[in-house]
Each structure stands twice: as C-alpha cells, then as structure tokens.
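Lecture notes, part 5. Sequence design as translation. It can be helpful to think of inverse folding as translation between two languages: the language of shapes and the language of residues. The source text, in structure tokens, appears below.
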C-alpha cells in the first residue's frame, strides 16, 4: 500500500512491483486516517518524540560550531541514541491498537471488528503534548563540513 506521492506511482515503480510479484494498492487522498493508521498513531508521536530529543540536543551548550557560527549537524551516534530513546517512549499498546484498527492483527473470528470503527486518536495514548505534524524537513538546517 502506498499513498499518491508521485514516486510511488511512476511506471518504473509499477514495473519493479511487477518484477517482485507485488500488487500495488494506491490509497486515495483523505483516507490516511483509515488506511494508514500507523502514520497517525505511531509515526506522529514518534516524530514528536524525535523532535524533543533534537530540541534537548540543540539547547545543550556543548555544540561544535563552524567558523561562521552555524551548529554542525549531530553525529550518527547522537541520532541513533535519539531513535533508541524515542522507540522506548512509544507504547506497545499504541502499536497493537493501531494494527488492530487497521484490521491487520485482529482475530479472525470477527470479535474485534468493532475496533475498526471506534473513534479514537491512539497518538494521545502516548501522552505526548504538542502537535508535531510538520514535514520531515523540520530537522534540516545543519551545516555539513
């Protein structure tokens, strides 16, 4: 499953999918909350927690700066530590509930089918304050030497 991002629906992508014996399903616009539940329930709080890790790092007084006064980008080990800390903050229950809401890991007897239609925002289960719905470019702007 993929969204309508141009790179996802090019002829070369379709050929590759066919070669790999995969079937592409393109999600129509506006259906992310129903069909890409993990984007809403897991990815959003994950990005928010990553933003918090970055904010702690950028506010620390121990940065190396360039001669022009720009902050150098964080090291790979810094970023790996942020990812580790962030995944530890995402609750397992949130991931499980999100998968069930997508119908991915619901039991086959139909007893959990009502979960698909419940109104909830699983991202709030992570008790994450603030709205971090910005783009992936939020973390750009570091100077690379």
């Amino acid at each position: 499953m993929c969204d309508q991002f141009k790179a996802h629906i090019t002829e070369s992508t379709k050929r590759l999918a066919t070669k790999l014996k995969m079937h592409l399903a393109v999600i129509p616009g506006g259906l992310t909350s129903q069909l890409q539940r993990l984007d809403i329930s897991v990815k959003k709080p994950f990005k928010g927690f990553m933003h918090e890790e970055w904010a702690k790092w950028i506010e620390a007084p121990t940065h190396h700066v360039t001669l022009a006064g720009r902050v150098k980008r964080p090291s790979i080990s810094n970023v790996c530590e942020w990812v580790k800390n962030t995944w530890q903050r995402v609750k397992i229950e949130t991931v499980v509930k999100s998968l069930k809401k997508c119908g991915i890991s619901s039991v086959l007897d139909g007893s959990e089918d009502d979960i698909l239609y419940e109104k909830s925002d699983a991202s709030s289960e992570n008790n994450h304050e603030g709205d971090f719905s910005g783009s992936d470019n939020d973390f750009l702007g570091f100077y690379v030497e």
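The translated text above is only one of many valid answers, since several sequences can fold into similar shapes. Residues 32-129 form one domain.
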